[in-house]
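Subject: Choline kinase structure
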Amino acid sequence: FKLEEQQIPKLVTEVFQKLARVHAMDVPIKRTHWFFTEMDRFYGLAQNNLNIHINNNEYNLETFKKYDLKTELEFIQQLLVKSKSPMVFTHNDFRSSNIMVLEDNNNNNNDLSDGQVVLCDFEYSSYGFRGHDMGIILSEWGRSISDFAKPYTFPDDSVLLSLIDIYIKESQICEVAYKGYWHIKDQLKEQHFFDNL
């Protein structure tokens, strides 16, 4: 899902509608919030395999010097629990490289506006927080996959609100509108959280 494809409203709508449909799926696999377990596991690996204090000083990692990572992880966990986000089936790698746009076979001028969006690479899918998928795709929004050396700019709230609105409307059509969990304000908070991880 290239940068130029993000400018085509039909394709953007289809991407966020399909994300809502993925989240509405009832897949017969274990339903657990793996996110906290993985955070703890990676924290443990870092503690056991890296000399964090030496690295922080050697590379002048001011943020890591200023804040205690374990305390921050505990704070993140508290926020997620407090959000009461519904557990949904998630892609867990919902990024532009896993969204393909197929060209219309009847179209000879390479205009993608009539193309079809296909989601791929579901190998990491599981149940989890819906904001995780939103955070991943929106962390790349407005840039190409090779632009990660450039400073990050978060999409404007007007862009976020329109994307979240597409997602919520499709979620309601899919009849997964858990009472009170599909408000734009709640979704925006959850998405912002995962985008900043």
